[in-house]
């Protein structure tokens, strides 16, 4: 285990012991836990691989579904600028099948309330039944739109929440149509560069030669896997980033303006008072001491990650593991770490 701490300010508890305890709960070839506390960063790294190819905190990790928060932030910015409306019919930008689908809006796609299935029917075999076959790789934009044309929604849009990679992927061509530019360019120009996210890229092929991508492993923790290429599903899961860049991204949410504030406004509340689930336009929200913590997890077939932040204590946690297991140990450890930090004396 390696700890790279920053000295905590007076009156703030050192997060290093909590980081070490969280790190011990995760077993994977490469593990990184990173904390930002009022802008002061601490990293804890470890793993079962005795000889990592580079310092683990410098690797680029696959973000999986955490990518969705970037895509929805892009949507929120375009909506704020009047390029499209969150509640305008999606049919203004994409061809939609008849029936309830004609009522789908960008907000429905962002909040997983469109009624669309998790993935298109013709992707189930490649993405679900045979996950290591990298079934997303050959899925083109035309194929995505063709799948939409023959898909019936499961329920009337806006009436239920059903997690959908399909829906988030469709935000890509919808935003392209509205803004008149390719999705990668929109993301770079309106999100990545303005937030100074210099080490965040769309796909492993975009990594510079000087930066190494973390290698995912199967559930056994040993068998390496090739990078996951998301193709038309890039808006739902195609980004790679470093622990440092993700902390920069989270820190921007701790001092939000404009669209960064918009994506933190609660949109949906589900469940009972004892087990309340709250969702913003893109983040999950849990109530803890001093105010809400917001978070999102991500996974590919060989990696898992987590990003969360607690505005009241100006705390953010990023976590990565190069193993995808059913228990999501790194996600649980990072979620608990953020809760523990939120309850302790923070920055003043």
TrEMBL record:
InterPro entries: AmpC-like (IPR050491), Beta-lactam-related (IPR001466), Beta-lactam/transpept-like (IPR012338)
Short name of any one Pfam family annotated for the protein: Beta-lactamase
Range of residues in the leader sequence: none
UniProt domain Beta-lactamase-related: residue ranges: 20-337
Protein name: CubicO group peptidase, beta-lactamase class C family
Originating organism: Actinacidiphila paucisporea
Lineage: Bacteria, Bacillati, Actinomycetota, Actinomycetes, Kitasatosporales
């Amino acid at each position: 285990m390696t700890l790279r701490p920053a000295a905590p300010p007076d009156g703030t508890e050192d997060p290093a012991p909590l980081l070490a305890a969280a790190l011990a709960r995760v077993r994977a070839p490469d593990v990184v836990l990173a904390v930002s506390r009022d802008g002061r960063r601490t990293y804890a790294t470890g793993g079962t691989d005795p000889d990592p190819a580079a310092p683990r905190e410098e690797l680029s990790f696959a973000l999986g579904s955490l990518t969705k928060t970037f895509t929805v932030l892009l949507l929120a910015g375009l909506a704020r600028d009047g390029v499209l409306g969150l509640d305008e019919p999606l049919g203004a930008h994409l061809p939609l099948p008849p029936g309830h689908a004609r009522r789908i809006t960008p907000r429905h796609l962002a909040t997983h309330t469109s009624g669309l299935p998790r993935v298109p029917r013709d992707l189930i075999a490649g993405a679900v039944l045979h996950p290591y076959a990298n079934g997303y790789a050959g899925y083109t934009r035309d194929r995505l739109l063709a799948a939409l044309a023959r898909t019936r929604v499961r329920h009337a849009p806006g009436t239920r929440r059903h997690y959908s990679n399909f829906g988030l992927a469709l935000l890509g061509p919808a935003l392209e149509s509205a803004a008149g530019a390719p999705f990668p360019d929109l993301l770079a120009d309106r999100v990545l560069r303005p937030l100074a996210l210099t080490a965040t890229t769309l796909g492993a092929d975009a990594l510079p030669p000087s930066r190494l991508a973390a290698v995912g492993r199967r559930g056994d923790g040993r068998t390496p896997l090739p990078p996951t290429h998301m193709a038309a599903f890039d808006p739902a899961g195609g980004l790679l980033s470093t622990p440092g860049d993700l902390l920069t991204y989270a820190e921007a949410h701790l001092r939000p303006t404009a669209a960064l504030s918009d994506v933190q406004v609660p949109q949906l509340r589900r469940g009972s008072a004892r087990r309340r689930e709250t969702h913003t336009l893109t983040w999950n929200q849990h109530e803890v001491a001093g105010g809400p913590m917001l978070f999102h997890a991500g996974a590919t077939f060989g990696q898992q990650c987590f990003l969360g932040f607690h505005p009241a204590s100006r705390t953010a946690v990023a976590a990565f593991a190069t193993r995808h297991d059913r228990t999501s140990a790194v996600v649980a450890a990072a979620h608990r770490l953020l809760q523990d930090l939120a309850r302790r004396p923070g920055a003043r």
